[in-house]
Amino acid sequence: MSEPRKTSESLARPVSEPPGPAGEASTPGVGDALRQFGHKAFVENAALKFVALVLALTVFVLVHSGENDVYHPWVSVTYSQETDRVMVSKRVDQVQISVRGTRRRIKRLQKERLESIHIDASRLSNGDLLLEPSIFNLPEGVELISVNPPSIHLEFDQREEKMLTVEVDTVGLPARGFKIGSAMSTPASVRVSGARKALAGVQTIATESVNLTGRTKPFEGAVELLNGDLDVLDAPTVNVNVQIMEELQARELEDMQVALRGAEGLDVELSGFSLEPASAKVVMYGAVHALEAIDEGKVRVFVEMTTNDLMQGAPRRLEVRVEPMLTDIAYRITPTHIMLTAAEQVAPTERGEPVD
Known about the structure:
The chain is an alpha+beta fold and 356 residues long. It folds into three domains: 68-154, RNA Polymerase Alpha Subunit, Chain A, domain 2; 159-246, Beta Complex (RNA Polymerase Alpha Subunit, Chain A, domain 2); 248-342, RNA Polymerase Alpha Subunit, Chain A, domain 2 (Beta Complex), CATH 2.170.120. The protein is built from seven helices and 25 strands. The strands form seven sheets. Strands 1, 2, 4, 5 and 7 form a five-stranded mixed beta sheet that branches. Strands 3, 9, 12, 13 and 16 form a five-stranded mixed beta sheet that branches. The chain has a five-stranded mixed beta sheet with strand order 23-21-18-20-24. It is elongated and about 140 Å long.
């Protein structure tokens, strides 16, 4: 038997997949479908889709940049005034304004610094100055909504000149054992100007505080003047000299036993004599550190008997002395003199010679 002839249709028809298990339908995969969707969405006509995205963003920016926005910047305030008048009212150095404009203009304004407003006080009198929109240099398209404060109170007084004594101000205490001595400035007075009411009753002008904490040596240097509302017409600084001195104190030595000594060349038994009183008090005056350096155990109080004292006979008043005598220490001894008495008359002799 001859084979059937293959036609073009039979050649073109794909061979069908073998049927799956009974009950299952042959369906395309989900992953293939997602890949086909992504390809069509992002790859096909990509240039046109990019242009559409750019146009959409441009429209969005233009629409939103045209919306109004509010900004609250601070603006500095400067003044000029006549030389014969002084503004005595509280000075307002800056005001806060509220402005409105498109977001694009407001963003541009935020990057720039607003110019300060200038008030020519020489043409004004006492009263409230209303801050009108015309004094603010705002860019075109930006509207002024409010000013805080809306006005500035101005009050003036006549200007006068006066000589004031410089008062050196100090803070802190020197080191232990030291104290502040004189405090002087060069020049001792300066010429200032200010409002008549401010100068009334004012006689001095203070310097900035000079810190003397823990100092042991004098301070000398240039110091600024605290002029406050006054104008110093001379130099704004003065040369200050503050002396630091050692503080003088007293140190007492009570009930110091008084010793009896014989003068050089006197040979006599001193045990036969007595002193009345037998003790004295010594008060030493000097710098704290010098007093603290004195060893109390080395201080001696004594009287000295001479040949003349023996010849004139006892009792005799002898001057009380102390040793060592330090040059930077002052002494006060109580009593200043002590009575010398003897049990019997003793004749004076020279050392090494017999008594006649």
